[in-house]
Amino acid sequence: MFDLILHAIPVFIICLALEAISFRFLPDDDEKGYELRDAATSVSMGLGEVFINIGWKLAVLAIYAAAYTVAPFQLPADNPFVWVALFFADDFVYYWYHRLHHTVRVLWGSHVVHHSSQFYNLSTAVRQTWTPMTALPFWLPLAFLGFSPWMILFQQSISLVYQFFLHTERIDKLPRPIEFVLNTPSHHRVHHGSNSEYLDKNYGGILIVWDRLFRSFEPEGARVRYGLTKNINTHNPFVVAFGEYHAIWRDVRTAGNWRARFGYVFRGPGWSPSPSPASSSASSV
């Protein structure tokens, strides 16, 4: 099967190098640019993801194929309208995959990797998770709807290639009609912001219309502070990849009851049990 991401890697490397060089010859005090250790960590995460996906994509393909074989009908790959339908279906699924990976902590444990850099450049785009398994349930229904497994994976790759080019400060806002419909570097900078007004905004993949429709859109205004609300401050790829899972396990292990354990896993990042009335009054004394 043709793997668009693997074939795009040389383009990614060239664009990353050109962007890094541009900061040397055209510096901008309002842009953070590159930091060598941070970029190296991002590239390490990207290479690790490519290696993991060698095996994982075969498993995904097999699972999609099993669902596709029992689909009530199978959509023809030579029909352009099927590809149009897949484009919108994939982008809609991506929106909800992305949104839930910000609002369910066990899913955030996988996605936090991508937000762990305090820089925003094309190297940030390749800072990807080493636990891609959390994505499987979101796209599986497309196979049950009759989309061929190779079509689903190919459309996912198109979306990821598009999103690579969103991770830059070198492009300002684009013309209004484009900004209204498509996800752009400006919209995605907001998504990577730790500013309070930018948290959990702009989840779109290629289109930004889902954010406008489901009220998660925020335009870029104040200068973006990149990273997490509590930054991890490490360049160790293994800590970046698995640190949040370790934190979840620590919270679950020390929780006082099953309600709290459930909350630490399935509620949002930063959730903690509400204190009881007795403890609240005691702590306020």
TrEMBL record:
Transmembrane annotation, as ranges: 6-26, 47-68, 80-97, 136-154
GO biological process, any: lipid biosynthetic process
An annotated Gene Ontology molecular function: iron ion binding
Natural source organism: Antrihabitans stalactiti
A Pfam family that the UniProt record links to this protein: FA_hydroxylase
Annotated signal peptide: none
Subcellular location: Endomembrane system
Keywords of this entry: Lipid metabolism, Membrane, Oxidoreductase, Transmembrane, Transmembrane helix
Gene Ontology cellular component annotations, sorted alphabetically: endomembrane system; membrane
Membrane topology: Multi-pass membrane protein
Fatty acid hydroxylase domain segment(s): 83-215
InterPro entries: Fatty_acid_hydroxylase, Sterol_desaturase/TMEM195
Protein name: Sterol desaturase family protein
